[in-house]
Amino acid sequence: MARVTTGYKDHIAYVTLARPDKHNALDDAMIEAIIAAGQEVAASDARAVVLAGSGKSFCAGLDMASFTSLMQRDLNSLVMERTHHDANAFQEVAMVWRRVPVPVIAAIHGACFGGGLQIALGADIRIAHPEAQLSVMEMKWGLIPDMGGMALLPRLLRSDVLRRLTYTAEKIGARQALDWGLLSELSDSPLTRAQELAAVIAAKSPSAIRAAKRLIAVAESGAAQADVLLAESAEQLELIGKPDQMEAVAAQLQKRSADFG
């Protein structure tokens, strides 16, 4: 049975973790399927992505049965080799969503723990049910976040909050996670809200949305101010007067929905 399902409708890609009987816990097959789904979506003409989990949870983290088999393998190679750009396969389950060139919206419910939280961190926007629970859970197992968490968490959390969540592995409710910056918003129906937001994004200029995601990545990278300003100018130059931008202007002036093809 497929670990992840992928579908497309109205320029939106729908990626769903599909191991509900295990709360979408991560085993080798799931990790491979998530990366493959991200790569597929990245190569598509989708204009936005909705990332969700089937069943009772978004993703409860690493399948501990899988962790046992992991210990039988060459750990040095498995952990240290950069098999996906700057990441290993475990890190790529989160980072692949940052590599997807269009916005990714995670719809979170139930458990979002450990590796599951780090997958959600890879999304541009995170919408959660008020009763969802989140945890940087690795310390529970004597480990540290190693699936992209330390590349992503410091961009969202104050240092003291980051340290508390990492050191304690405590579970926090969605409202606390929202207050601390882990979430974008709460919704009683996070999947529906994610679909609504994806539709808004998909109706915008596809080339401008992609340019915006590239530019935000530069701005968040710690690049020098001069480099960020230069990137702004370079991206804008590629948009001004081009078909997507002209259609956006025409649609506004004519008070109609834009048609980007």
UniProtKB/TrEMBL annotation:
It holds the Pfam family ECH_1. CDD domains: crotonase-like. GO terms for molecular function: enoyl-CoA hydratase activity; isomerase activity. It is an enzyme of class 4 (lyase). GO terms for biological process: fatty acid beta-oxidation. Pathway: Lipid metabolism; fatty acid beta-oxidation. InterPro entries: ClpP/crotonase-like_dom_sf, Ech1-like, Enoyl-CoA_hyd/isom_CS, Enoyl-CoA_hydra/iso, Enoyl-CoA_hydra_C. Its EC number is 4.2.1.17. The keyword Lyase applies. Keywords: Fatty acid metabolism, Isomerase, Lipid metabolism, Lyase. It comes from the Bacteria. Belongs to the enoyl-CoA hydratase/isomerase family. This is Enoyl-CoA hydratase. It comes from Leisingera methylohalidivorans DSM 14336.
